[in-house]
Amino acid sequence: MGFIDKTYLVFSLLILFSVPLVQSQEEVEWSTDFRFTWADFKGPAPITSIAAATTASGISYNFSTSYENNELKVEYTVSAYFYPTRSWYKPEVCNDVTLMHEQLHFDITELYARKMSKQLAETKFTENVKEEVLKIYKTTLRQLNDFQNKYDSETNYSRNLIVQERWVNEIETRLKNQ
């Protein structure tokens, strides 16, 4: 077996063994009916972290293209997901306010999934659909990250109860109106 054949075999085995790990990643799609409980946070809390909890969430998308009457059609789905095994909390420092704070992080992710979906709907795509969708996705993730950081900063990670409540109301309103 030559070097290229061995490299291909090793690469194939790596893909084969890593696919079940990716597929076994637990994920929960955002819905109005799903509200966090601490039991949803299944990851181990890092000993060195000063944070009380972490919500691992993200945006996923897929799309397909076709032609109809010589016109490019792009169909897509965009979803917000929560990843329980990558989310964690420290029971000794967390309470119901902390849980509400973490829920809002997931709700904000959903808000940005909707923004991405709206952006895709409003875009007139060219033959470079893949690059254009990826650019929208990356821009959305940057905006989401900035917004999540602003949320943490303004609420002082849920410690400022008045500002925390304002954020809850604002995000609930935005979700209802989008």
TrEMBL record:
<dbReference type="Pfam" id="PF06037">
    <property type="entry name" value="DUF922"/>
</dbReference>
<protein>
    <recommendedName>
        <fullName>DUF922 domain-containing protein</fullName>
    </recommendedName>
</protein>
<dbReference type="InterPro" id="IPR010321">
    <property type="entry name" value="DUF922"/>
</dbReference>
